[in-house]
C-alpha cells in the first residue's frame, strides 16, 4: 500500500501548491479523490488501471475534462465554467463526478493510461524571453533554441509574442517582437526590486534565432484537432484567459510551424545540439517538465548536458523548482529561498563557454507565468 500512500500524497500536494488559490472546482475534486484514496475507495480502481507514473491529479482531471467536452449535457458540466457551467462546488459534486467517471470509463481510462500533462502555458514565454535575451547578451551569438518537452511548440515562439512587463510603481515595459498575429499581449507583473532599465536590454532588443526545434516523447501538432482538444482540457475550467491565449497561440503556431522531433530527449538531444549552426549557440531550455521525470532520468539529463557542454559552447535554461532544476547542477539549496524553503520555481542558466561550467540564478518565477522576479546573479 506504500504506492497508494504516495499517490494520495500527490493529490494533497496538488491542492496546496497548485489549485487552492486559483481553481475552487479542482480544489474540491482533488480533495474528494484524495479522501477517497485514503479510504481505499472507488478511485483506487480508477487510477489502478493506469501506470504508476500516470496516477497524478492533473492527468485524471484533464482526462475527465476532455471526455466532458464530448458530453456537454451531462450534469457534471454544470460545475465547469469551460462548458458554460456556473454551479459552485457543493455537497453533490463528489457524487456527480464519480457517476460521470463510472459512466465513461471506456473513454477516460485510455486517456489516463496514455495521456501526458502537456500544458505548454503560453504565459511562461514572459519568463523565458528575458532569459533568452540574457543568453544572447552574454554570448553575443544567435540562438539555436532547443526545447525539452515542447508539447505543441508554443514556447519556441517566445520572441514573437507581445509582452507587457508591469513594475510595482505602475511602469509598463513593452517587449517582444509582437509578430504573432492574433495572440493577445501577455501581461507579466515584475516582483522584487528590478527596475525597467535592468530588464529592458533583455526583452526589447530583437532576438536572433538561427533555429527552433522541440524534443518530446509525444509532440502535438497545432493542426491536429484532437491534440488541440487535449491541450484545452489541460487548462483548468475557471481559467478563461489561459484558454483564450492557448487558442490564439495554437492558431499562430499552425501558420508558422516549427520542427518537433519525437523521442526521448536524453537520446536525441546530442543530435539536436549538433544540428545548431556553427556561428550560433545551442540554447536548450526546459520549463515545468522535469517533475514528470524520474530522479534517475533527471540525473541522466544533467550528465548529458555536462558532456555536451564539455565539447561545445552551450547554455541550458531551466525554469523549475530549484531542487529539480538548477539545484541538480549546484547540489545546494536555493540561496535566495526565504527561511530555507524553495521558491516555487527558479529561473536558472547553466553556461558552458570554453568547456567551463558556470551557474546563474536569473530570478524567481510564478506558476503559469504569473509573475517574474528578475535578479540575475552567479552562483558559487
Automatic annotation (TrEMBL):
Domain of life: Bacteria
Cross-referenced InterPro entries: UCP012608
Pfam families, sorted: DUF2332 (PF10094)
Protein name listed in UniProt: DUF2332 domain-containing protein
Organism whose genome encodes this protein: Actinospica acidithermotolerans
